[in-house]
Design brief:
By secondary structure, this protein is α/β, with parallel strands linked by helices. The protein folds into 2 domains: 13-103, Rossmann fold; 110-142. The protein is 31% helix and 28% strand. The chain has 4 helices and 7 strands, in the order E-H-E-H-E-E-H-E-E-E-H. It has a 5-stranded parallel β-sheet with strand order 3-2-1-4-5, with helices on both faces. It has a two-stranded antiparallel sheet with strand order 6-7. Helix 3 links the parallel strand 4 (70-73) and strand 5. The longest helix is centred in the last third of the chain and has 15 residues, at 128-142. The chain is globular. The N and C termini lie far apart (35 Å).
């Protein structure tokens, strides 16, 4: 079972393995909160260069976990994502496996910001459409 909480991530290193749109979305989430983004991928979207403090073009290696607080495994290879998750857990690092919601230590919520409020919406990865619908409704309600 998951619980909702806010965590200080400013200046913490977040490893994103995978340079596609899913990894970029999750990297933006952490970067907005002040985390330092380290990305590893064989190829990556250009926008990573705008937010990543470290970019490594190549294959994932466990050494990339050094000094990392959180990991996002967002490759297109489910087996590699599971291996990355296992490596992270062996080091006591929380991981989000983007290809398997049951293999996550945390889920990344949809966020609605309004003045000094921050509202997080999550379905623990079970209902992305419902989360996005609620997010849109809350944004419309708060900004009317």
């Amino acid at each position: 079972m998951f619980c909702s909480l806010s965590i200080q991530v400013e200046n913490r290193v977040v490893l994103i393995v995978g340079g596609g749109s899913v990894g970029l979305r999750r990297a933006r989430f952490f970067e907005k909160a002040g985390a330092r983004i380290r990305v590893v991928s064989l190829s990556l979207l250009d926008d990573f260069s705008l937010i990543a403090k470290e970019v490594h073009i190549g294959c994932y290696h466990e050494n990339y976990l050094d000094d990392v607080s959180f990991v996002v495994a967002a490759t297109s290879n489910d087996g590699l994502n599971r291996s990355i998750a296992a490596d992270a857990r062996n080091r006591g690092i929380w991981v989000n496996n983007a290809s398997d919601r049951t293999d996550c230590d945390f889920h990344i919520p949809a966020i609605v910001d309004y003045d000094h409020l921050s509202i997080a919406i999550s379905s623990e990865g079970k209902d992305l459409e419902g989360v996005l619908t609620l997010k849109k409704r809350l944004q419309e309600f708060l900004h009317d």
